[in-house]
Write a structure and sequence with these properties.
The complex is a heterodimer. Chain A is mainly α. Chain A has a domain of 204 residues. In chain A, α6 runs antiparallel to α11 and α13 packs antiparallel against α14. Chain B has a single domain, classed as ABC transporter involved in vitamin B12 uptake, BtuC. The chains are: A mainly alpha, B mainly alpha. Chains A and B meet through α7, α12 and α14 of A and α5, α11 and α13 of B.
């Protein structure tokens, strides 16, 4: 007889090994669609590897791509830890970007050391407001935040189109819906000359470290985890569950807003409706792969960014659709979910008669 | 005056039913899964997969009804994955559902791009045509509104009756509701909680895929990226709005269709006075609004979102 029972304590080895194994398994499973598309599998993996490690430029491009994913991964992590299902990071990212553009395109004439913190703060506030709304509807009216945040993503994207055709439109853009460029003083500087990698990465890394410390060491982090693990018990223990959920929502939204600021002020320089190819949604995968650990988010964001950049290079070289990257990302999420199950349980062989 | 004109026009009511059709399939599918106790956020991706698979099957020569079968089968397949992850494995229904949405969407896009690498305009199929029923289709007003719809709209309406009948009038429906309300009691009565939940998710996902297939096989005649555009999420909101009742789900979908049809017509009349995006936003805002109103009173299936393991209380 075989029976499945939960482990008393999931071993440390598993908590680290499962995400890595899941990621690698998802990468290997990519061989199936590659073969179906008629590509030489080994050449395809070779191209992917070249696309990430082939040159300094390739490597910095990968880190550039990882930057927004660290932010959105942190946003998902902070909310999910409290069992607050913020699926709206995509919308919050755009709110942050809109705020950055509203302030950073000539409204205020100030030197960079004032202007850059200013757009970061306004962007974070806009993102926070974007998540505070659904959290309020949840705590006040019991409206499911999954549905409200998902729907808000669409509302915000349409609102963005409206802004880019109206108040935020660049008068010089000849009908094309895009914002005016961010003024030079507000642009996040490059980290390495002639590479696109910018200070957004440093801000993201700092945010990850702060999030890690706050979650594991502060009273706020303790409350957050308590609410996430058992809201009824937390309430019984005198923790203000609604307040804690609101604060988690605000911090989560703020971090997602920073992703938008970083992209628009560090990379693009102006805002269009295709600023994010779904970074908000991919952030959920990043967070799950990281086991909802802020430092882990940095590692898994780098992995997911590698998949995207590698698949882009492979796609250009071999003509295989770059949607392969999205496929690998989705498969990693499913693999890590199953892996998490395997880590929490063990299969025991029992003799007949005993049970 | 203009408002009255819109409300009295045949085309408005015809469009209402047409716009509601994919939502009817989607709401019924989501409702069936949730009645058995499992939230299926894979719906958005299953819509995409149904739209792509149904269209491609017709394009490959399976015929329209063959295409619907393929779409339902593909939907059922993604439902099975969600079912395995959430029922016997008991994993987070939220995260698993989002994973299914990402997986189904990317598989569909990848398959489409691989089959049709570089086409400037997507190939078209011959979609379902509005039925022409002798006498009935020629009736004044009722004719154009009800009897000049495609077969898929009729299928959707039939499904409302079927799902209602199965859930409320058959032992199977009683069993499905039992595993969604009180799996322990259902198990004690000898019902298979796993089997019923898995079956309900597969059937519900197949229905969702038909909603997607309507888009490529009836509303339009080809597949576009991003064509589902949040319809799946709207269905999830509509299920709560409908208090998990098939009849109310139909009303919800129709109200929604009416609102969409109305705003498109109002937009052409109001013209440039209001930015067009206000109208585009309206359906999503309306969904959130509806959710907020009913959320407190909603009678959730009591075991919704709660994993259940055999032999463990």
């Amino acid at each position: 007889m075989i029976r499945i029972e939960p482990r008393e304590t999931p071993s440390r080895w598993w908590t680290f090994g499962i995400p890595v194994a899941s990621a690698l398994l998802a990468l290997m499973l990519a061989a199936i669609p590659l073969a179906a598309a008629g590509a030489n599998i080994f050449e395809a993996y070779g191209q992917m590897f070249k696309g990430i490690f082939g040159s300094t430029f390739a490597f910095t491009e990968m880190l550039t791509r990882a930057t927004p994913l660290i932010f959105t991964g942190l946003a998902a992590t902070l909310a999910f830890r409290a069992k607050l299902w913020n699926i709206g990071a995509e919308g919050q990212l755009y709110l942050g970007a809109m705020a950055a553009v509203a302030v950073g395109t000539g409204l205020i004439d100030a030197p960079g050391f004032i202007l850059i913190p200013l757009i970061l703060v306004t962007g974070a506030m806009a993102g926070a407001a974007g998540m505070a709304g659904p959290a309020y509807l949840k705590t006040r009216f019991g409206a499911d935040e999954v549905v409200t945040t998902l729907l808000l993503n669409f509302i915000i994207l349409i609102f963005l189109q409206m802004m880019l055709e109206g108040p935020l439109k660049d008068p010089m853009s000849l009908g094309w819906p895009q914002s005016s460029p961010i003024v030079d003083a507000a642009v996040l500087p490059q980290l390495i000359p002639r590479m696109r990698l910018h200070w957004g990465l440093i801000i993201a890394l700092v945010a990850a470290v702060i999030a890690q410390i706050m979650l594991s060491k502060s009273v706020w982090g303790f409350k957050l985890r308590a609410v996430g693990e058992n809201a009824a018990a937390a309430l019984h223990a005198g923790i203000g569950v609604k307040r804690t959920l609101m604060s988690a929502a605000i911090v989560s939204g703020a971090v997602a807003g920073l992703a938008g600021v970083s992209e628009v002020a560090g990379l693009r320089g102006y805002l269009t409706t295709d600023l994010s190819p779904g970074y908000g949604y991919t952030g959920i995968v990043v967070a799950m792969l990281a086991g909802l650990s802020p430092i882990g988010v940095v590692i898994s964001a780098i992995f997911i960014a590698s998949v995207f950049v590698g698949a882009d290079t492979m796609s250009r070289a071999m003509g295989v659709s770059s949607y392969l990257a999205d496929l690998v990302v989705a498969m990693s999420l499913i693999c890590v979910l199953v892996g998490g199950f395997v880590a929490r349980f063990r299969i025991i062989r029992t003799n007949k008669g005993e049970s | 005056m203009e408002v009255l004109q819109i409300l009295l026009s045949e085309s408005f009511w015809n469009a209402t039913l047409r716009i509601a059709t994919p939502l009817i399939f989607g709401v019924l599918g989501a409702l069936l899964c949730e009645k058995a106790g499992v939230l299926n956020l894979g719906i958005e991706g299953i819509f995409v997969a149904g739209a792509m698979a149904g269209w491609m099957a017709v394009w490959l020569g399976f015929g329209l009804w063959g295409g619907l079968l393929v779409a339902a089968g593909v939907g059922g397949f993604f439902g099975l994955i969600h079912a395995i992850l959430t029922v016997p494995l008991g994993l987070s229904q939220h995260v698993s559902g989002l994973g299914i949405t990402m997986f189904a969407t990317s598989v569909s896009y990848f398959t489409y791009r691989t089959a049709l690498p570089q086409v400037s305009s997507p190939p078209r199929i011959e979609p379902f045509r509005p039925l022409d029923i002798p006498i009935l289709s020629d009736l004044p007003f009722i004719g154009p509104v009800l009897f000049q719809q495609t077969a898929m709209t009729w299928l959707a309406l039939f499904m409302v009756a079927l799902v209602w009948w199965v859930l409320n009038r058959t032992p199977l429906g009683l069993a499905i509701r039992a595993v969604g309300d009180n799996p322990d009691a259902a198990d004690a009565q000898g019902l298979s909680v796993y089997g019923l939940r898995i079956g309900a998710i597969i059937a519900g996902s197949a229905l969702m895929a038909l909603g997607g297939a309507f888009l490529t096989m009836s509303a339009f005649d080809s597949f576009f990226f991003g064509m589902v555009n949040g319809r799946g999420w709207i269905c999830i909101a509509l299920v709560i709005f409908a208090s998990w009742r098939p009849g109310k789900a139909l009303i919800g979908a129709l109200l929604f269709g009416a609102f969409e049809a109305f705003q498109v017509r109002l937009q052409t009349q109001v013209g440039a006075a209001v930015p067009g995006q206000i109208f585009l936003m309206a359906p999503y805002v309306l969904s959130i609004f509806a959710l907020v109103i009913v959320a407190r009173r909603a009678e959730y299936p009591r075991a919704l979102l709660k994993p259940w393991f055999k032999g463990q209380r």
